[in-house]
Design a protein that fits this description.
The complex is a heterodimer of chains A (about 500) and B (about 180).
Chain A: H1 2-14, H2 19-35, H3 41-51, H4 57-82, H5 91-102, H6 106-139, H7 144-161, H8 166-181, E1 183-184, E2 191-192, H9 198-201, H10 206-224, H11 242-246, H12 249-264, H13 270-284, H14 296-320, H15 326-337, H16 346-349, H17 352-374, H18 377-383, H19 387-404, H20 409-427, H21 432-455, H22 462-465, H23 467-482, H24 485-497
Helix pairs in contact in A: 1-17, 2-4, 2-17, 3-4, 3-10, 3-15, 3-19, 4-5, 4-6, 4-14, 4-15, 4-17, 5-6, 5-14, 6-12, 6-14, 6-17, 7-8, 7-21, 7-23, 8-21, 10-19, 10-20, 12-13, 12-14, 13-14, 19-20
Chain B: H1 11-14, H2 19-41, H3 47-50, H4 59-81, H5 95-115, H6 121-137, H7 145-170
Helix pairs in contact in B: 2-4, 5-6, 6-7
The chains are: A mainly alpha (about 500), B mainly alpha (about 180).
Chain lengths: ~500, ~180
């Protein structure tokens, strides 16, 4: 009953002062950003953070949550119509979405995408509302030793599972951690790697780095490849069919649970959630042969999984100050900019904030379904904007986004540098999620390692003997061992034999 | 037998980098890691303040430098095992791709690094958008070029003025 009262309080708090207006425009921008190939949810949340500087924390969070939810959903539009995922999260949706569109069922595919995405976010939001408050209370037992392991676990799990090569994932994670050490440290205010430069002594701003890695690098990548081909403009009814939902309720529940769980794991994100949900649905399906050729179940699984991941990724942000995905990392940075302090103390200082986030997610989900039904043809036109006209505008917005937070030209140079480095690392197939997580978690790891050592007088045993620490340490070691080729296959073989 | 995992339709994009590229990357990262360790070692220890030296600013970056260097050695050894020492990797992308990339990069640096802060922001943005669009649409051929150039100019002016109005007047942010 308390939870319901808190939720009602959350809605009452959020719904005021033009909240619906903000939700409408922010979700629309999110959907457009997500739909346009080359613009990602992370970039969208980072750029829109700039616009929220002048707003109060509540409105700012509502806007950013709406952009996040909208962008993850919007990616499916181009996945279905262009066979190009608007965001990496929608890559799995191309497998069955585009074949459905080619069969003349683009509208039905978008209906499935809308219903799957809506239910996925709703499912994940319910899990957030149910478990985040109690997990937040549990997290209050975490001290410096435990927070050190949480941060390290985030880097290791993101490196292992964020797609591609785990070795490069780890290197990307540690490069991110290194970036976070630039500037004054907390104990002695010593400026590390500053070389007498006042700007460097202040550290590299998270937002300029993220805008560079996700914005500038995206612009460079988009301009290098071939242009996107035009789509069929013939679309059937987009109204979701009840039967498509009722027939696949097991897939929806499974994908919702998987998506939320993967979201809650630090640094994995929506693309992993979509692929895992898709693979699980394929394994469990009686019609496996249809997967990849226009399976409704496959599309439903991918869409539900990626959208359930959004609230899932916010759970560790609120309870541990550890982001579950790259867009959630930017959302967390925005929370800090607006004076909100996510993490274990949230359960004591502002416990009602969790329910306000729940209310924001539900509002964003509702607005998303409205646009999913009403905004089909205008989105088609937007998808056809040539990249030579869109990308320079995106670059201008990146420049504004990097500059606006502290009004330093130095941040524009940081954005350019991060963009070039990010582009090169991508070309060399280094995953970006561990890099971002490293930058975000760097301070947490640094501070807690040193604080822990000071508290124990230089004794490292508390890192390995405290009950929660030892559990987190074991998890980190298992995650690291999993990515070692020989050991990983041994685990998998034993599981298969069992 | 378990069903194989769903395959990404973007295998081409996710194809591993060539062993030669990995080898060069590993060498660069190893030098970088060692440089970080060296710099971290030279940082003050503040033993007088802390008593133990455990709060020395160089401990954490030094640890990261060691890990980066070690991981890059593993990457390099793997690249050598895959033939990175002997086989030269093919240059990635076509000449046209590389030209487009260079054009985008140069225009971006000239705009963000050279014009922003020196030229009024709306004008710098308008000129950048116009130059960028025109450069990339030039190769579409002479037919309709004048129309495309005029449209690029209009998009540029629209972007410059639009960004100024939205960010400065509506959201009250300072522009460069």
């Amino acid at each position: 009953m308390d939870a319901l009262n808190n939720l009602a309080g959350g809605f009452a708090h959020v719904l005021g002062g033009g909240a619906i207006f903000h939700a409408l425009w922010a979700t629309l921008i999110g959907i457009i950003i997500g739909a346009l190939p080359g613009l990602t949810a992370t970039m969208g949340v980072a750029l829109l953070t700039t616009l929220t500087f002048g707003m109060g924390p509540d409105k700012a969070m509502l806007v950013l949550v709406c952009v996040y939810v909208g962008a993850i959903y919007g990616g499916s539009r181009s996945a279905i119509l262009l066979n190009i995922p608007g965001t990496p999260a929608s890559a799995a949706s191309t497998l069955d979405g585009f074949p459905l569109a080619r069969q003349g069922l683009a509208g039905r595919a978008m209906g499935i995408s809308t219903s799957g995405s809506w239910l996925g976010t709703l499912f994940g939001t319910m899990i957030l509302a149910l478990f985040a408050p109690s997990f937040g209370e549990f997290a209050l037992q975490f001290g410096s030793y435990e927070m050190f392991w949480v941060a390290l676990f985030g880097i290791v799990i993101a490196g292992s599972l964020s797609g591609g090569d785990p070795l490069k994932g780890y290197i990307a994670g540690f490069l991110g951690l290194f970036v976070a050490t630039i500037g004054q440290e907390t104990n002695h205010a010593y400026a590390r790697f500053a070389y007498g430069n006042g700007d460097l002594a202040g550290g590299l701003g998270l937002l300029p780095v993220l805008v560079g890695v996700f914005g500038v690098a995206e612009v460079l990548s988009a301009m290098r490849g071939p242009a996107v081909m035009a789509v069929s403009s013939k679309i059937d009814s987009v109204i979701p069919r009840i039967r498509d939902v009722t027939q696949h309720w097991k897939t929806i529940l499974r994908s919702g649970a998987l998506g939320t769980f993967i979201g809650a794991m630090p640094g994995l994100g929506e693309d992993i959630a979509a692929w895992t949900s898709y693979a699980a649905a394929k394994r469990a399906s009686a019609e496996r042969e249809k997967f990849g050729k226009g399976s409704i179940e496959g599309l439903m699984a991918a869409e539900t999984g990626e959208s359930a991941c959004v609230p899932g990724a916010i759970i560790p942000v609120l309870t541990l100050a550890v982001p579950g995905s790259a867009p959630a990392a930017v959302l967390m940075a925005a929370m800090m900019i607006h004076g909100l302090n996510p993490g274990p103390m949230l359960a004591i200082t502002t416990p009602e904030f969790i329910y306000q986030i729940v209310a924001m997610l539900i509002i964003a989900d509702m607005v998303k379904i409205f646009y999913g039904l009403a905004l089909v043809r205008p989105l088609l036109w937007i998808l056809l904007i040539p990249r030579a006209r869109l990308m320079p505008v995106v670059f201008v917005l990146c420049t504004v986004g990097a500059f606006a937070i502290t009004s330093r030209l130095f941040d524009i140079w940081v954005m350019l540098g991060a963009g070039v480095v990010g582009f090169i690392l991508r070309e060399l197939r280094f995953p970006m999620a561990p890099l971002v997580l490293g930058i975000v978690l760097g301070e947490l790891l640094d501070k807690n390692l040193l604080r822990g050592l000071v508290l124990s007088g230089g004794d490292i045993s508390p890192f390995f003997t405290r009950p929660i620490s030892v559990g987190l340490c074991a998890l980190t070691l298992v995650a690291a061992a999993w990515s070692i080729p020989g050991l990983g296959s041994l685990f998998r073989r034993k599981r298969a034999i069992a | 037998m378990s069903e194989p995992d769903a395959a990404s339709p973007f295998e081409g994009e996710k194809a591993p980098a060539s062993p030669r590229a990995d080898l060069v990357t590993a060498a660069v990262l190893c030098v970088f890691g060692i440089a970080v360790v060296t710099q971290a070692w030279q940082m003050p220890r503040f033993v007088e303040q802390s008593g133990t030296g455990l709060t020395a600013p160089g401990i954490v970056p030094g640890f990261y430098g060691v890990v980066i260097a070690l991981l890059s050695i593993v990457l390099g050894m793997r690249a050598i095992r895959r033939g990175g020492w002997a086989v030269r990797g093919a240059a990635q992308g076509s000449a046209a791709d590389r030209r487009q990339l260079a054009t985008a990069a140069v225009l971006g640096v000239v705009y963000a690094g050279g014009m922003v802060g020196r030229v009024p922001f709306w004008l710098a943005s308008a000129l950048f958008v116009f130059a960028f669009t025109t450069a990339f649409e030039w190769e579409l051929g002479p037919q309709g070029r004048l129309r495309r150039v005029i449209e690029a100019a209009l998009i540029g002016i629209g972007t410059g003025i639009g960004v100024m109005l939205v960010f400065e007047k509506l959201f009250l942010l300072r522009l460069p």
